[in-house]
Amino acid sequence: MTRYTSATPDDRAEMLAAIGVESVADLFEQIPEPLRLGRPLALPDGLSETEVFDRLAALAGANADAESEVCFVGAGMYDHYVPAIVDAITSRSEFLTPYTPYQPEISQGGLQVMFEFQTAMSELTGLPVSNAGLYEGPSSVASAGYLAMGATKRRRFVVSRGVHPHSRETLATYSEGYGAEVVEVGLEGGLTDAAALAAAVDAETAAVFLQSPNFLGAVEDVEALGAAAKEHGALLVVACDPMTLGILKPPGACGADIALGEGQPLGNRLDFGGPSFGFFCATEAQIRRMPGRIAGETEDVDGRRGFVLALQTREQHIRREKATNNICTAQALNALAAMVHLAWLGRQGFRELGELLVQRTAYARQRLAAVEGVELLHEAPVVREFAVRLDAPVGAVLDRCAERGIAAGYPLGREYPEHEDGLLIAITERRSREQIDQLAEALGAAVAAERGEFVNQELTKAPTEAVS
Amino acid sequence: MTLTETPMQRERAMTIYEKSKPGRRAAVLPDAGVPEAPLAELIPAHLLREQAPNLPEIAEPEIVRHYNKLSRRNFDLDSGFYPLGSCTMKHNPRLNERVAALPGHARLHPAQDPRRAQGALELMWLLQESLSEICGLPHVSLQPSAGSHGELAGLLLTRAYHADRGEERTKVLAPDTSHGTNPASVTMAGYEVVKVATNERGGVEMDDLRAKIDEDPDQVACLMLTNPNTLGLFDENIAEIASLIHAAGGTLYYDGANLNAVMGQSRPGDMGFDIVHVNLHKSFSQPHGGGGPGAGPIAVSDRIEPFLPRPQVVRREADNGHGLSFDLDHERPKSIGRLRGFQGNFGVFVRSYAYILSLGADGLAEASETAVLNANYLKARLADGRAGERLPIAFDRHCMHEFVLSGKPMKKELGLATLDLAKRLLDFGFHPPTVYFPLLVDEALMVEPTETETKESLDAFAAAIEQILEEAEGDPEIAKQAPYTTPVRRLDEVKATRHPVVRQPLQPPPPTGR
Question: How many domains does one find in chain B?
């Protein structure tokens, strides 16, 4: 079906005549005959717009989303409210449809957004240099590893087990390529084991990777933990949740050389995991090793203020195999969404939102800890996410909560087998006190019901796996 | 001020920070609604921030004005012709935006239990199947976030494939016409790049390829190729190239940036490629967003499949034995592992799948035909008149979806660099072609019109080039000082790199009183 094209039979005839061929097929003769497909693709024929809409709406309807159930799942992406102006601005053609700003004279809008975004991220993280965004959080961690190898000429990373499992796994994947060793340091009481970390860092360590709040929600003492990195000349890389940076001491003030993270909480929808963006900030010393685009301020020939892509000599389209990273297309529109959201929240609102998260999370934590069969997995301070242990199989409890329209949290068992009974619970400004109370009630009922059944099962057969 | 200047566009750029004033705000947040405790009782004081970060303070009406004004300082695909070579700036259907925004997609948490995300997983599976058929390769991973991420994935897959066979290879071959991301990805994946020369027909120089392989065949891990290549030409020797690489034990990687030329016409898998990346933001209509988001799924052959990233979307018999269900397979022992968080840029998958459904088998084939027709027509138009003399085609044969001109005679005869021509095109309301790429063509201009442009647009572009060249014959200075009508004129990029100012210097904010 002809879609989105305009060539009429007359157009085609005129165009073919101008080219000097009989048919379009003549143009494809440069493809050797055996390599021409010679049949239609085995795909359905094209559909009308209304049919496509209905198909996609049916698929969307087969998902339980955060509009149809109450979502307490976080683990790096959160059900925040995205203000209406974000959609209004990001859907403008002028932001939605240009390519990367290679022609700055006609790309000032996008370039200035990058500059404003870099300023905002630099303010949030307390580090002087920000890029204009990377793909998402975990691959940003892997890119920091590549930077650290270049900066230190060392090939060993020490990574806290509190760093997001996806980040640790992505770092390991990339390390297989660029040839680095990854050493993991465990958690004690929800926090990075400081003694083990200090023991693991040595003169061969390129970077120490921490996350705060860590994957279990606990706020780490980055400054204290980072001392080991400083002592041995390793870079300190801190992954952080941007929504907590109105409350928590910024990584730059804790000695971080690089602060990065998943940007989704800022103005981006859940989208089943993407597209979102990664942010990446660093000290001045690393500016020429940064991955990704960076906008810089300059002047035009008439002395008028303007913005360009700065430091392009780091990038693949100029430096090819010597580039500091291979990244090209990244997430400009998602960074715009973040910037609009941050402007909308503003200096006061951003802080207030952080405080709101802390207060509601404290309430939820206390409320859930009082539920029979639920206990805190750790007592460390938290901002917007915390972990509990359930005295019943987590999967079954989650199923029971889902039947009541509640997505109760993120099960820790797959990625933390030592916490097979663990559940991670996230709070956003969309989760009201009433919903938190509903969660407590649903979890309590589900655990109680499962404990009844679980005990009965134990009478008939031995559990196949030890429950820690 | 002259009449050609648009006053609003020529206002001095002010950042949102410069419009900020203490005490202004937009957001009104809900009350906590829970018993509150002092912050320092919940989080130790030494872990807390002393002052709120310095974000703008500005009310909603002014935020909207600010970003709307900024938007008008951008040129975009919806405003005009955008023949940026290798970028496939085709129309972005708005239907795709609508379906991506449905709450079942937009508000679906990525960690949702697969049993409650069946629609999303089915959509991903259907997209995998579609891309598999289009690429002619049996397995697809949607995980890579963009083309360069797909390249890195392909090289890590190559490494894992060889390691599994007990081999360690060090070299990756790539033509001198390759995209810059190719060699950058090679280095990131821990390999060494070996450049292969281009022959007089614009394809791989076979003798050079043989020589580079024969130097040390056991060290050849991979050949990365774009076909049609960055000159817009199909490499007729591809079957022989594939057999040479495979005989040496290497893998053949297809950079899918130019897939828009061959959809439903020829398939990389049938050409002998083992790994292909697809830029969903090029051939499959995801809007570019001013530099992303995109997505770079990879399609691979059977021998590469065991190493695909995890998790992988799979279709299984449903638990209840009735029908099929979809799942995320994390148990992939030979997998290279994750390349990113969660499952990939799902919102992009929704748009691209909607596009594939809209066009179907017939529409995709027609899109490629029209893309090739448009490119050859524009090439023919530019072979006439002044353009034909001053901007000759680099390799004179039928092209596929794009073609490359050389501004060498223009520079020699008129003193006009390709950059000058590009900047003067801005005054005529066109986005310029890709300039100075590929590197082996002097003063290169790489033109890709795409299938969604009308004949009238192509004619207007050809006429603009003719007019600029005619004007330059009279006074080359006009183009050399261009542009004149844009929000700013030529910018000092050297200054921005020598003395980078990459954020706004701000006064420290007044204490918050907290």
Answer: 2
Q: What SS3 state is found at B236?
A: coil
Range of the domain at B473: 366-498
What's the Cα-to-Cα distance from B175 to each of B170, B198, B235, rounded to whole Å? 17, 7, 12
Read off the tokens for A318.
């100029």
Flag if B53 and A245 touch (Cβ within 8 Å).
yes
Residue B96: inside a domain: no
Residues 426-465 of B with CB under 8 A from A: 426, 431-432, 434, 437, 451-455
Residues of A in contact with B117 (CB under 8 A): 63-64, 272
- pTM of the predicted model as reported, rounded to 2 decimal places: 0.96
C-alpha B381: how far from chain center: 28
Residues B346 and B417 occupy one common structural domain: no
Look at residue B70 and tell me if it is in a domain: no
Residues of B in contact with A362 (CB under 8 A): 34, 37, 42
A448-460 pLDDT, tens per residue? Answer: 999 987 665 555 4
pLDDT tens digit sequence for A332-361? 999 999 999 999 999 999 999 999 999 999
Question: Which residues, numbered 187 to 216 in chain A, qualify as contacts with chain B under a Cβ-Cβ cut-off of 8 Å?
Answer: none
How far is B25 from A154, CA to CA, in rounded Å? 47
CA distances from A140 to A85, A144, A253, B502 (A): 28, 6, 21, 19
Burial of A177 (0-12, 13-18, 19+ CB in 10 A): buried
Confidence class for position B6, pLDDT limits 50, 70, 90: low
- B277 and B317, same domain (yes or no): yes
Residues A85, B63: C-beta atoms closer than 8 Å: yes
Query: Is the same domain home to B133 and B228?
Result: yes
CA distance B473 to chain A (A): 24
- Among chain B residues, CA nearest to A180: B190
B315 and B250 co-located in one domain: yes
Which among A111, A360, A340, A92 has a CA at the least distance from the CA of B79? A92
- Which among B356, B377, B406 is the end of a domain? B356
CA-CA-CA-CA torsion sign (B255, B260, B264, B265) = negative
Judged by CB atoms closer than 8 Å, whether chains meet at B504 and A116 is answered as yes
Residue B322 in contact with partner chain A when CB distance is under 8 A: no
Which residues in chain A have Cβ-Cβ distances shorter than 8 Å to B119?
Answer: 58-63
Same domain, residue pair B281 and B421: no
pLDDT at B321: 67
Chain A CB contacts of B270 below 8 Å: 35, 37
How confident is the model at residue B177, as a pLDDT? Answer: 87
Which of B12, B98, B358 shows the shortest C-beta gap to A3?
B358
Cα distance between the two ends of chain A = 59
Task: Decide if B359 and A363 are in contact by the 8 Å CB cutoff.
Answer: no
List of domains in chain A: 84-340 (3.40.640.10), 347-460 (3.90.1150.10)
Question: Domain check: are B278 and B396 in the same one?
Answer: no
Res. B129 pLDDT band, cuts 50 70 90: very high
Residue B57 to residue A346, Cβ atoms within 8 A: yes
pLDDT score of A464 = 46
Q: Are residues B236 and B137 in the same domain?
A: yes
What local confidence, expressed as pLDDT, does residue A468 receive?
38
- What value does the mean pLDDT of chain A take? 95
Residues B262 and B330 both lie in one domain: yes
Query: What is the number of residues in chain B?
Result: 514
**Burial (Cβ within 10 Å: 0-12, 13-18, ≥19) of residue A230:** middle
CATH number of the domain enclosing B485: 3.90.1150.10
Q: Is residue B101 part of a domain?
A: no
Evaluate whether residue B35 is within a structural domain: no
**Cβ of residue B93 closer than 8 Å to a chain A Cβ:** yes
On chain B, the residues whose CB falls within 8 A of the CB of A118 are 502-503
